[in-house]
User: Which sequence fits this backbone?
C-alpha cells in the first residue's frame, strides 16, 4: 500500500479551505443527526416504558410471593414460628436475591409480612353500617410500618414479652387516617374480630397514622391497607343494593401468628416493588423472559427451593411489557420510514458532495493519471485528504449528539456517526476512482438528449425497478393481511428509486419534442435554454433520487401526521358527540339550557333525553333510546358527520295511532325489522316505535345498538333533557363549567382529544417524524443546490461570453431560469406524483391507530393514511422556488463580476 505524504494533504487543504470547511460542516451535521436519531428514539422508548410502569397499579407491576395456610396435618407451632419477623426476613433476603437478580426492584418500597386473604365481619355496633350490614376488615402484620408512615395520634402497636400465638386473645393495631375517619375509629377503640372455635379477638387501636407516600408501592400494592372501600353486594336488577365498609387493621409485625386463629385464611407474603425508573426499552425481551421464568420457569424453581415448595409467584408485569411492546411495534416501522428516507437523502447528498469535488478536480486528476499516477495511489491520497477533514468533523458531530441527548445507548449512535464519517471519507476517492479508472484527458460530450445508456446500465435499472416494485407489492399484501413488517421503512426509498429511474429515462423525450419548435422562435433565449438543458449531465439519477425520496418521505410523513390528527378528531367527536357535551346523572335542571347557550363560543345547542336502560317488549334486553328535537339534531349530525339524516324522516307523525319514527343502528334495525315494536322507557311509560332511518353512528349515544326518536312523542318525564350537545369553534370551557355548576359533567372535544396521547412514545414519535421529514427536506434542497452548483462555473462562463455578444442582464436571468426549470419541474412534478402514488399504494398496509390513540381508546375502526395536499404542494413549490432563486442569484452575481474575470474562471475550470 502506498504511503501518503503529508505535503499533498497540507497543500490541498491550503489550496481549497472553503471546500474543506464545507465538507467538515456537512459531515459534522449529518453525523450529529444520524447519531441523535437512535438516542432520541431510545429516550422516548425508555420514557414510555417507565410511564407505563408508573401508570399501572403497583399491584400489577410488583412481584408477589405468597405461601398459603397449611393443611391441618402440618404442625401449627412450626407455622407460628415461620410467621414471626425473623424467619420472614430471612426468606425475604433469599427471595430478593432471586427476584432482584432478574428484575429491577425498589427495595425501599418492598414489604413482607402476614395478612388475611378473606375479609372478616366485625359485629361491633358502633361501626358505621350504610344499609345495615356490618363492616368487614382485613388483618395485616406488615414490616416497616414506622418507616413508611407518620403518627397522627397515639403510638405504633407492639406485643408483650410473651410471644403471640394463634390463641392470643388481645393484640394491638393502628389504622390510617382515612380508615379512622370512615369507620369512626379513634385511638383507644377496641374492635372484636370473630375467630374459629374460640372467643373473638380483641384488637386495641393504639394509634392513627398517615402514609408518607400514599401512592408508593408499600401502600398502593394493597390499597385497602390505606383506604377503605364501600362494597356493594350483588342483587337482582332494579332492587335495593346492600353496602358495607371494607377496611384494614394493621397489627404489629410480630403479631402475625394470631391470624391463624381467624377464618381469614392468612398467608405469608413478600411483595417486591418494581423500580419504575430503572428499566430500559432495549432490555424488554430480557425483562419479559425474566418475568416468564419467575412465573413458570427456572426462576420459579429457584424461588420454591429457597422460600418453600408451596410458594406462588404472581405479577402482571408481562401484560404491561406486552402492552408497551405492541405500542412500540406499531409505531416503530412508521418512524423508521422517516429515518430511512432521510438517511437515504443524506447519503445521496454526501455522495453528491464527493462527486462535485471530483468533477471540479477532473482536469487535475486526469493529468495526474496521464503522468503515471496509479489508481490506488491516487485514491489513497484523496482518502487521506478527506479523512483529515471528515474524521474530526464526524467525531465532533457524534460528541454533540452524545452531549445533547444523554441517558441512551452509545453504541447505535457511534455506529451511525461512524457510517456517516466513512461515507464522507470515501465519496471523493471512490467517485474519482470510477471516473479515472482509464487514463484519459478529454471527455466526450455528455448530452442527455442524445446519450444512449449502455446495455449493462439498462439491465441494472430494470432489475432495480422490478425488485422495488416487487417489494412494494409484497408490502401491500402483507399489510392487507395484518402482518406488515419493517419493509414499511423502505417504502419511500423503493418508490423513489422506481420513479427516479423512470423519470431519468423519460426526461429526453420532452426535450426532443420541444427542441425543434423552439428553434423557430424569434428570440434565442428559449432555444438556447432548451439546448443547454438538453446538454446537462446524463448522470442525474442521484440528485433526482434525493429529491424524489425527500418529497415522497415528506408526503408520506404528512399523510401519517394528517391521519393521526384526523383519527384523534374523529375519536373525540365519537366520544362527545359534539364540540362539547353537558350530561347529568338524571334530568337536567330547568333553565340550564338557556344558561349554557349564553356561554361564550356556543353557537348551537341540541337538547337530548337519553334513557340508557329502556327495555324491549320482552323486558329482558335493554338499549339506549335518545329523544331529540329532529331539526336541531339533524343539523348537529350533519355538522359532526355522525350519521346525517333528513329531519322530516324523524318527526312525530300527525296521527295519534301512528308509531313514532326511529333512527336505529344497523344491529337494532336488524333485530326489530320494519314492523312496529314496543319499548318501555325508564319512567315506566311505553311507546310504539318503527324504524324509519338506519345509521351506523349518531351524536347522542354510541354502541352497536341505539334508537333515536322525536322527544315530542315521549311522556313529559321521559322527554326532560338529560344531555346538552353544543357546537362552536371556541367554546370557553371555564364559562361552560361555571354555567353548568353541579348539575352535570362537562366534556369538551378538545380535552377528549388530548387524552388520546397517553404515552411519551406517541408524542416522541411525532416529534422524531417531524424532525426527520424537516431534515430530509433540508438535505433535498442541498442536493438541488449541489446539482445546480456543479455546472455553475460553466454557466457563468457562458453568460460572460454571451454578454460580449450583446446579451442583456434580464435575458441572462431568463436564460438561467429557463435552463434550470426542466430539471426542477421534473423533480417537483415527479416528487408530487411519487408522493401521491406512495400514499395510495401503501395505505392498505399502514395503520396509524397505534400512534394516534391511547391504549384505552377505541375509535371503532382502524385509522389509515390519506393524502395530505399541503405535504404535496409545499415541498413541490419549494423545489421550484429554490431552483429559480439559485438561477436568479447566479445571474445577479455574474452580472456584478466582470466578463473578463468570468471568462478566465470558466477557462480555468
Assistant:
Amino acid at each position: 500500500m502506498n504511503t501518503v505524504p503529508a505535503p499533498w494533504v497540507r497543500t490541498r487543504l491550503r489550496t481549497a479551505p472553503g471546500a474543506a470547511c464545507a465538507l467538515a460542516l456537512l459531515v459534522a451535521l449529518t453525523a450529529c443527526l444520524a447519531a441523535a436519531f437512535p438516542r432520541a428514539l431510545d429516550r422516548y422508548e425508555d420514557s414510555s416504558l417507565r410511564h407505563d410502569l408508573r401508570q399501572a397499579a403497583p399491584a400489577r407491576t410488583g412481584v408477589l410471593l405468597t405461601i398459603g395456610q397449611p393443611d391441618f396435618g402440618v404442625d401449627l407451632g412450626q407455622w407460628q414460628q415461620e410467621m414471626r419477623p425473623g424467619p420472614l426476613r430471612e426468606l425475604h433476603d433469599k427471595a430478593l436475591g432471586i427476584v432482584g437478580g432478574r428484575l429491577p426492584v425498589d427495595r425501599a418500597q418492598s414489604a413482607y409480612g402476614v395478612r388475611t386473604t378473606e375479609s372478616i365481619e366485625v359485629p361491633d355496633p358502633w361501626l358505621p353500617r350504610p344499609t345495615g350490614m356490618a363492616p368487614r376488615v382485613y388483618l395485616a402484620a406488615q414490616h416497616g410500618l414506622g418507616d413508611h408512615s407518620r403518627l397522627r395520634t397515639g403510638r405504633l402497636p407492639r406485643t408483650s414479652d410473651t410471644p403471640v400465638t394463634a390463641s392470643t386473645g388481645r393484640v394491638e393495631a393502628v389504622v390510617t387516617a382515612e380508615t379512622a375517619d370512615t369507620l369512626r375509629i379513634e385511638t383507644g377503640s377496641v374492635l372484636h374480630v370473630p375467630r374459629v372455635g374460640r372467643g373473638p379477638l380483641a384488637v386495641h387501636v393504639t394509634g392513627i397514622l398517615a402514609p408518607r407516600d400514599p401512592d408508593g408501592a408499600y401502600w398502593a400494592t394493597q390499597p385497602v391497607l390505606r383506604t377503605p372501600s364501600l362494597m356493594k353486594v350483588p342483587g337482582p336488577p332494579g332492587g335495593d343494593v346492600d353496602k358495607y365498609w371494607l377496611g384494614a387493621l394493621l397489627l404489629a409485625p410480630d403479631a402475625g401468628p394470631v391470624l391463624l386463629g381467624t377464618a381469614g385464611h392468612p398467608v405469608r407474603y413478600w411483595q417486591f416493588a418494581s423500580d419504575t425508573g430503572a428499566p430500559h426499552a432495549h432490555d424488554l425481551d430480557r425483562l419479559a423472559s425474566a418475568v416468564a421464568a419467575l412465573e413458570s420457569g427456572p426462576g420459579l424453581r429457584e424461588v420454591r427451593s429457597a422460600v418453600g415448595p408451596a410458594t406462588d409467584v404472581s405479577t402482571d408485569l408481562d401484560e404491561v411489557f406486552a402492552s408497551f411492546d405492541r405500542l412500540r411495534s406499531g409505531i416503530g416501522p412508521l418512524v423508521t420510514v422517516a429515518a430511512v428516507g432521510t438517511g437515504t437523502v443524506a447519503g445521496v447528498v454526501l455522495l453528491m458532495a464527493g462527486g462535485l469535488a471530483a468533477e471540479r478536480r477532473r482536469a487535475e486528476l486526469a493529468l495526474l493519471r496521464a503522468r503515471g499516477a496509479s489508481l490506488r495511489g491516487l485514491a489513497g491520497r484523496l482518502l487521506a485528504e478527506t479523512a483529515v477533514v471528515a474524521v474530526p468533523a464526524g467525531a465532533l458531530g457524534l460528541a454533540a449528539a452524545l452531549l445533547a441527548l444523554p441517558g441512551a445507548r452509545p453504541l447505535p449512535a457511534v455506529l451511525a456517526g461512524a457510517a456517516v464519517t466513512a461515507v464522507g471519507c470515501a465519496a471523493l476517492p471512490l467517485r474519482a476512482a470510477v471516473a479515472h479508472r482509464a487514463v484519459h484527458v478529454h471527455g466526450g460530450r455528455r448530452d442527455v438528449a442524445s446519450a444512449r445508456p449502455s446495455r449493462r446500465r439498462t439491465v441494472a435499472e430494470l432489475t432495480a425497478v422490478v425488485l422495488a416494485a416487487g417489494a412494494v407489492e409484497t408490502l401491500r399484501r402483507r399489510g392487507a393481511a395484518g402482518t406488515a413488517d419493517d419493509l414499511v421503512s423502505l417504502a419511500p426509498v423503493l418508490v423513489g428509486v422506481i420513479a427516479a429511474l423512470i423519470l431519468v429515462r423519460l426526461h429526453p423525450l420532452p426535450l426532443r419534442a420541444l427542441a425543434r419548435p423552439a428553434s423557430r422562435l424569434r428570440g434565442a433565449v428559449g432555444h438556447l435554454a432548451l439546448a443547454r438543458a438538453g446538454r446537462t449531465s446524463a448522470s442525474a439519477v442521484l440528485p433526482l433520487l434525493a429529491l424524489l425520496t425527500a418529497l415522497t418521505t415528506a408526503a408520506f410523513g404528512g399523510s401519517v401526521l394528517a391521519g393521526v390528527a384526523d383519527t384523534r378528531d374523529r375519536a373525540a367527536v365519537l366520544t362527545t358527540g359534539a364540540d362539547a357535551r353537558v350530561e347529568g346523572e338524571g334530568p337536567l335542571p330547568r333553565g340550564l339550557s338557556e344558561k349554557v347557550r349564553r356561554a361564550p363560543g356556543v353557537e348551537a345547542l341540541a337538547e337530548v333525553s337519553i334513557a340508557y336502560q329502556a327495555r324491549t317488549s320482552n323486558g329482558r334486553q335493554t338499549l339506549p333510546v335518545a329523544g331529540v328535537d329532529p331539526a336541531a339534531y339533524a343539523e348537529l349530525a350533519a355538522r359532526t358527520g355522525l350519521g346525517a339524516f333528513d329531519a322530516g324522516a324523524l318527526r312525530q307523525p300527525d296521527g295519534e295511532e301512528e308509531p313514532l319514527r326511529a333512527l336505529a343502528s344497523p344491529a337494532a334495525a336488524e333485530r326489530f325489522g320494519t314492523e312496529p315494536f314496543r319499548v318501555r322507557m325508564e319512567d315506566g311509560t311505553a311507546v310504539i316505535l318503527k324504524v324509519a332511518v338506519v345509521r351506523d353512528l349518531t351524536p347522542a349515544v354510541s354502541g352497536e345498538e341505539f334508537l333515536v326518536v322525536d322527544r315530542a312523542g315521549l311522556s313529559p318525564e321521559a322527554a326532560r333533557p338529560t344531555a346538552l350537545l353544543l357546537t362552536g369553534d371556541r367554546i370557553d370551557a371555564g364559562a361552560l363549567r361555571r354555567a353548568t355548576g353541579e348539575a352535570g359533567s362537562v366534556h369538551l372535544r378538545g380535552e377528549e382529544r388530548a387524552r388520546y396521547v397517553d404515552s411519551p412514545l406517541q408524542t416522541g414519535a411525532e416529534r422524531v417524524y417531524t424532525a426527520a421529514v424537516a431534515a430530509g427536506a433540508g438535505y433535498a434542497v442541498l442536493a438541488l443546490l449541489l446539482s445546480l452548483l456543479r455546472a455553475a462555473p460553466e454557466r457563468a462562463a457562458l453568460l460572460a461570453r454571451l454578454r460580449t455578444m450583446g446579451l442583456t442582464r434580464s435575458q441572462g436571468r431568463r436564460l438561467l431560469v429557463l435552463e434550470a426549470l426542466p430539471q426542477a419541474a421534473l423533480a417537483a412534478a415527479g416528487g408530487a406524483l411519487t408522493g401521491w402514488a406512495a400514499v395510495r399504494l401503501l395505505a392498505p398496509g399502514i395503520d396509524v391507530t397505534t400512534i394516534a390513540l391511547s391504549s384505552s381508546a377505541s375509535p371503532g375502526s382502524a385509522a389509515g393514511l390519506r393524502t395530505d395536499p399541503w405535504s404535496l404542494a409545499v415541498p413541490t413549490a419549494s423545489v421550484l422556488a429554490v431552483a429559480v432563486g439559485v438561477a436568479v442569484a447566479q445571474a445577479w452575481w455574474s452580472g456584478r463580476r466582470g466578463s473578463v474575470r468570468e471568462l478566465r474562471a470558466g477557462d480555468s475550470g
User: Anything to note?
Assistant: The radius of gyration is 38 Å. The CA atoms of residues 115 and 140 lie 4 Å apart. Residues 480-484, 905-909 have pLDDT under 50 and may be disordered.
